Amino acid sequence: MRLAAQFSFKNGLEEVTARYPHLLAEVVDTVRAIDASKACPPVVRRGNLSPEISRQEINMNRLLCKLSLATLVVVFGASTFALGQAGAVASPKSREEVNKVRAEFDAGSRQYREGNFAKAEEHFRKALELDPEHKNAPLFLARAIQEQLKPGDAGAENLAKGEEAVEAYRRILAKNPANEDAFDSIISLYRAMRNEEKARETLLERAGDASLPVGKRAGIYSRLTNEDWQCSYNVTEQKDNRETDQQPDKVIVKYKMPADSNEFYKARQCVTRGLEVAEQWLQLTPQNAQAWSYKANLLRESSKLAEMEGDASQKEAAEGQYKDALAEQQRLTGGAGPGGGDAINRSGDGMVGAASPTDPASTDSTPATGKRAPISGGVLNGKAISKPAPVYPSEAREAGAQGTVTVQVLVEEDGSVASATAISGPPLLREAAAAAARQARFSPTLLSGQPVRISGVVTYNFVLQ
Hints:
About 55% of the residues lie in helices and about 10% in strands. It has helices at about 1-5, 10-20, 20-35, 35-40, 50-90, 95-115, 115-130, 135-145, 155-175, 180-190, 195-205, 215-235, 260-285, 290-310, 310-335, 395-400, 425-440; strands at about 240-245, 250-255, 345, 375-380, 385, 405-410, 415-425, 440, 445, 450, 455-460. Strand 6 (about 405-410) and strand 7 form a beta hairpin. Helix 10 (about 180-190) runs antiparallel to helix 11. The model is unreliable at about 5-10, about 15-25, about 50-55, about 70-90 and about 335-370 (pLDDT under 50).
């Protein structure tokens, strides 16, 4: 058919000869091999035509017949060739082969449920060998390897097992870069191996991946800057590292060097790298108010650290940059400064900022968003007005995963959930629990008669029936 189309326009023969020489040769050979006297029906000469014209008509009909037969041969041959090529890529499996794959996968699932993770790994590997395109085996294999890691064990064999699990998840990401579960597992593995440097490197690498949605990349930058701000805040706001002077109209806070200077240098490193990440975040989304918020609060931390070190010029520079960043954040949101405007005069120098978050353990708070930091509420299950049950993931059922998942939630003044992150529990069940928590509603928490934001946890129990 392709040849007929190419041959139907001017210079068609040249085009066919140049582009399809193998097909043209096949047609020629096929036509020559056809015995038209046997393959084509006889043509009866019509009596009203001259002998010469009648012979031409007979010859033409024979030629058309031979060409038709040749076309059928070529089309059939091409189809057969195409099917053969497809079969070479993904030949259909026999029932016996399918049953072997299923048997290995089911055996791996049973071993996983029973806690025999090394045995489970063997079966999942075998299932993948039999069927490299198996949908679930790669994830289950990675999980089985991950479960063999012993957190806190710095032995070479244990760390090698952790790296093996990382590579298993990386193979999943290579096929599906959007698989957040695989990516989060890699970060969890590095942190379980106490390799914070590699975890951070992996996070930054993903944040810089232009193929990912901007929102996902910004979320990673947010995660990193929050961790860096928290790292410094936990040092500067330690009771022994600050002095408070309560005056009638204001509170004056002075910061002093920690007894352990290593804490100071760790905090300064966190602020330095946090500001670098904040700049990358702002290059990605220049009008992102949250990015400006974190930049402002990291600069505030820089000011505190400069005061601890007795560097007045650096303190003044950091305060000026803090004010500029805060002004930009306020311009973008039209909101108040961090903490909602509870004024604190830093060191009596007239620089009015805002109260530091009252719950430094809460990583859900956004330091400079114009809202008060949430108060800690502990376990919030009893305060839930509506707490939808999570959907039991099919892959978790197949693996026999069950248990309790704890989800950290940030609840707004009206009782709605602003954010939810699973912090413990079986990995295959965490996202389902977090998704359910985001749909929950809680009775408002009142402080002095006013509703306040609250940070706490909710738990979900998954039980196989």
